[in-house]
Amino acid sequence: MADHYFTATPSSISQPSAVELHLPDVQMTLMTDRGVFSGSRVDPGTLALLRECALPPAEGDLLDLGCGYGPVACVLARRSPGATVWATDVNSRALELTGANAAALRLANVRTALPHEVPAGTVFSGIWSNPPIRVGKDALHELLSVWMERLAPGASAWLVVNRHLGSDSLAAWLVGRGWEVRRAASKSGYRVLEVRRPT
Ligand SMILES: C[S@@+](CC[C@H](N)C(=O)[O-])C[C@H]1O[C@@H](n2cnc3c(N)ncnc32)[C@H](O)[C@@H]1O
After folding, report:
1. 43 CB-side CA count, 13 A
2. Per-domain boundaries in the chain
3. To test ligand 1's pocket by mutation, which of 53, 130, 170 has the most ligand atoms within 8 angstroms of CB?
4. Mean pLDDT score of the chain, rounded to an integer?
5. Which of 3, 77, 163, 165 lies at a CB distance of 3.0 to 4.6 Å from 107, suitable for a disulfide?
6. Cα 27–chain centre separation
C-alpha cells in the first residue's frame, strides 16, 4: 500500500531531491524526499503561509506543527535566530530531513522532535502549521485542540488550509471553540488564518 505523508516510517524508497524556496526576505535550498509531504516542490500553501504570516517573535519557543521536510521551521529559524523553533512530526523521514536541512543551513535553533518528545511544559510564543487535513476531521480537530492550548497568552497561531479542503469550516470550528479567527489572506485557493485567544 502507498505511504501517506503522515506514515510514521515511510516504506517508499528514498529518492531525495532539492527544492528552492524563494520569499522576499529568505531564499534557501532544502532537501525533500518521497514518503513526505510535498516530495518534489515547496507546497503553494506553505509559500502562502510564509508570505502572509507576521514576523515571528524574536525570542521564545515557536512551534512548527507537522514540519514535513522543514520549510516552515527553517524559515522561522532564519527570521528569528534568537528563538527556539520546535519542529514536530509523526513521520520519521520528515524529522530527519528537517534536522539535516537545518544543519546544512546552520540553523542551530531548530529542534526536531516527535510530538511526545516536545517538553510538556513548553508554552509557545507562536504556532505555525500547514496542518495534515488528510488525517480526517476528528483527528485534525484533536491535534489542533491539543497544541493550540499551549499557545502563550496574546500569541498567534498561523494556519494555512486549502479552500477546497475545508478552510472555512475549520475556521468556523475554531470560532465555536472560543478562538478568535482572522482571515489574514486568501490567495490562490488558500486561506491563511491567524488564530488567537480573545482578549
Ligand atoms: C500538510 S503537511 C505540511 C508539511 C510541511 N510543514 C510543509 O509545509 O511542507 C502536514 C504534516 O503534518 C504531519 N502530521 C500528521 N499527523 C501529525 C501529528 N499527529 N502530529 C504532528 N504532525 C503530524 C504529516 O506527517 C505532515 O508532514
Report:
1. 24
2. 17-196
3. 130
4. 95
5. 77
6. 18
End-to-end CA distance of the chain: 47
Do the Cβ atoms of 158 and 194 come closer than 8 Å?
Answer: yes
Phi, psi torsion values for 172, nearest 5 degrees = -65, -40
CATH superfamily, region 17-196:
Vaccinia Virus protein VP39 (3.40.50.150)
Is 75 within 8 Å of 47 (Cβ atoms)? no
Q: Which atom of ligand 1 is nearest to the CA of 91?
A: 25
CA distances 167 to 3, 35, 171, Å, are 25, 25, 6
Amino acid symbol at 186 = S
State which H helix or E strand residue 128 sits in. Answer: strand 124-129
The pTM assigned to this predicted structure is 0.96
CA distance 174 to 54: 20
Exposure pattern of 9-24 as b/e (b: 16+ CB <10 Å)? ebeeeeeeeebebeee
pLDDT 10s digits, 106-147: 999 999 999 999 999 999 999 999 999 989 999 999 999 999
Q: Please say whether the beta carbons of 118 and 145 come within 8 A.
A: no
Q: What residues contact residue 106 under an 8 Å CB cut-off, 6+ apart?
A: none
3-state SS, residue 92: helix
